[in-house]
C-alpha cells in the first residue's frame, strides 16, 4: 500500500466475502486510497487499534459479531468513536437503515456496488472528516499516521512471514490454480511430493502432472469447481521420475470475480502407501477366492468376519448369509466333546491342526482337514482366529476303500494260513473215522462215527469257503457266456424262492464273454440272490440285470478297485429292509453276519468278494434302510471282445456333444456333482448344480427359461428325488428330467413317477452313458 498519496485517506474495508474485499480493494487502491481489510468484526476492531482508518466500510451481515455490533463497539471507544462508518448491505428495509444511522453510521451503500457511487460517498465523507480533523489536530495526526503506518506495515510483514512459514512447513501440499487450471502457487510440500522444483511447477497446467486416465477424471472434477462446489476425492499424479503418487485432494473455489471463476485452492495429502496396501489386500483377497480351500476368519466370540469363495463351494453358504453368525452353529450339528477339547488346546497354544467332522448347508456330513491360527493386533493382543479348511471327504472315502482292501487282503492271508493248517488237522481225523467204521460194528458206535463224519465234512466245507475267500477262488477258467448263467440262476430262484417274491430279469442282448469258473460265478449269483430273499421275509421284488459297460476315467475315480476297460456289469437288487451304513462297511468281512445264531456262517459275502476279485473284477453295494439293497458285480470282458472294445472306442469318439444347452445337476454327493459337471462342460454343455431338492427347486424357479434338462438323483436327504421331480413338474409340466439312482430299478422309478419320466440313468455311470441319455432326452419332443 506504500506509494499511495496520503491526502486521499485510509479506508478500512470489513467484509467476510473475499470477492467483495478484492473488488473494493482494487477500486479504492486504484483511486489513490490507502486500503486496510478485515474479514470479521473482531479483526476490524483489533485493526483499528493499531492502524486507525479515516473511514470504515462495514458489512452488516457477518459471522461472529455483525456490522451493527461492531459499529456499537467502535462508537463506544474514545479512540475510535469519531471514525466515520458507512454500512454496506444488501438490505433494503428502512428500519435497518435507521437502526444503523442511530448507532452512529454516517451513510449506507447498497449492494451490488456502483463504483461511481462508492467513490463519491467515500470521497464526500472523507472530505468532511478531513476538514474537521485538519482544523483540530493536523500536526498531531500526521505524526501519528506515520507511526501507525510503520507499525501496520511491520505487522503485515510479520503476518506474511508467519503465513509463509506455516504454509511451507505444512505436511499437506497446497496448490493454487487460476481459472484455466494453471499453477499460480505451490508450497514446498508439493515440490517434495512430485520431485519437481517450485519453479518447474509454477505456470504449468494442473493436468500436466497426470496420465491420460487421471486427466479425464481431473477435468470432470475441475469443471465442478467452476460451480463453486467443494470436493474431496482421490487423484493420481505422476512424479518427475514417472512413478505414481496417490493423493486425497480437498478442493475449494477461491471466489468469483464479476461472475467469473478465478481459481481454486487444493490441499493434497499423500496416500500412496495406503493405496498400495489396499491393492495388496485386494490381490490377497482375490487369491483367497481362487483357492478351493475354505478360508474363514472369526472373532474371539466365534462370529464369522470373513468367508471366501472356497468356503461357499465347500459348505454351500454364501458370504452374505454367514457374516456375523456363530461359526459352530453353521458348521457343526452340535457342540461335541471334540470341539471343546480343540478349543482348550487352541487356548493354550494359539494354534491347532487336525480333522473335523462338519456339515454343509444341505445337511451332508463332510470331513475337513482344519488349521487354526491365532491372529494378534499391533499390541500383540489376541484379535481373531484364521481357519483354513480343506475338504478331504473324497480322500477319506478312497482311504477307507484302500484300508478295506488292505484289511481284506490281511484277513485273506490269515484265513488261508489257518485253513491250510486246519485241513492238516481234519485229514487224519477223517481217515481215523473211516478206519474206525471198519473196526467198530455195533450200531451205537456206527451212529457216533457217522455224526463225527458229518461234522468233519461240514468243517471241511467251511475250510473250502475260507480258502475260496483267501485265495481268490483259484479254479479252471473257461471262456463263458454270462447270459446262460443268469438264465439258469433265474430258473432256480423262481422254482425255489417263495411266491411272495417277484423276480425280474433284464439281460442286454449280445453280452460280452468273460473268462471264469462257471461254478464259482454261479455261487456268486446264488449267494447274492439268497441274501436278497432273506432281506424280504414279507415278500418284495428281486431284480437281476446285466449289460456291457466301458469304464472310463470318471467312473474309475468313484471306485479305487476299478480300472479303465470293458466290463460286464451284473446287478442284483431287492426291496428289502436294507443295510445301515455302519453295517455296510463290514458285510464282506469273513464270519461277520447279522443273521440269528445258526442261520449263517458269515462267509457268504466274503466268498462272493473273493470270487469276484479272483476273476479280476470288483463289487459295489448300495443300500438304504427300509428301501432295499443293490449289489453291482463288474467282471472284465475277455480278449475275445477286443473287436467289440475297438468298436466301443470308435463309438465313444462319436458320442454326441452339446450346443450350449443348460443342465441342472441335482445330487447330494459333492464328488458326483463335480465329476458330472466336468464331463458335461467338456462336451459343450452348461451346468448348474444343486446339492438337494430344495436348492434345485429354487434354482429352477429362478432360471426355468434357461434350463433345458434336470438330472435328479432319486435318493437325497431333506427332499428326495421323486418329491423334487413332482414339484418341478408343477412349475413346468414340460420339464425334461433324467432320473438317476444307484438302487432303484427302472420299473420302480416308473411306479413312483408314472410315465412323466421316461429316461433313467443307473449309478455309477460313465461319461458316454450320461451324454447318450442327455442327447436322447434333448431329441425327445
UniProtKB/TrEMBL annotation:
Keyword Nucleotide-binding in annotation: no
Residue span(s) of domain Response regulatory: 10-126, 662-778
SUPFAM superfamilies linked to this entry: ATPase domain of HSP90 chaperone/DNA topoisomerase II/histidine kinase, CheY-like, Homodimeric domain of signal transducing histidine kinase, PYP-like sensor domain (PAS domain)
Coiled coil: 135-162
Modified residues (4-aspartylphosphate): 59, 713
EC number: 2.7.13.3
Protein name: histidine kinase
Organism phylogeny: Bacteria, Bacillati, Cyanobacteriota, Cyanophyceae, Oscillatoriophycideae
